[in-house]
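Let's practice the habit of predicting before peeking. Look at the sequence and jot down your guess about where helices and strands might fall. Then scroll down.
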Amino acid sequence: MTTTPQSPAAWADEALDLAADPFRAFAAWYAAAEQHAPQPEAMTLATVDAHGQPAARMVLFRGMTGTPPAPRGLRFFTNYGSRKGAELEGNDRAALLFYWQPLRRQVRIEGRVQRLPAAEADSYFATRDRDSQLGAWASRQSTPLASREDLESRLEAMRTRFGADPVPRPPFWGGYLLVPTCFEFWQNRPNRLHDRFRYEPHGDRWQITRLAP
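Done guessing? Here is the structure:
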């Protein structure tokens, strides 16, 4: 969808009218990003290993889920045997970052990660195109490869294995839910005097604090 982007000043004015609930605030900003930013679902996921070494990579946001009193959070999917999967098994603390350049906005989210139920992972996996499903079986994510040809031969082996049958979700692949412990919304402003609003849980509500840029 192509629309005429608002000026940075207009977006900044909207930043001052954030919802009291950070999930609602995020949903509103994400809806704007879907209209004005390329690949709005791209987000950085940061994890930490057993030695305290952080690592970050891009993953895809696959929706929010959960209704109180159930945990509310943001979903993503990956290979459980990948580096990020291994690090999340050892340390469930993680952080997400969205940056939408046309809107000059970013959202930082910190929290704890838990695996999604198998049925939810199955449901999402079934929506992926067949080549992506086969690729999930073929790739032993984060492990050394002898060559590109080795990876492609694994893919062909999966084509042969499954033939015309439906491709089931691999047992080593699934979803995660990041349950936020804080949100930070950032809106670009002139002279680097940006707007920053941090949400932190306070009893049964969220406390909003304006931060210096």
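How did you do? Confidence is low (pLDDT under 50) at residues 1-5.
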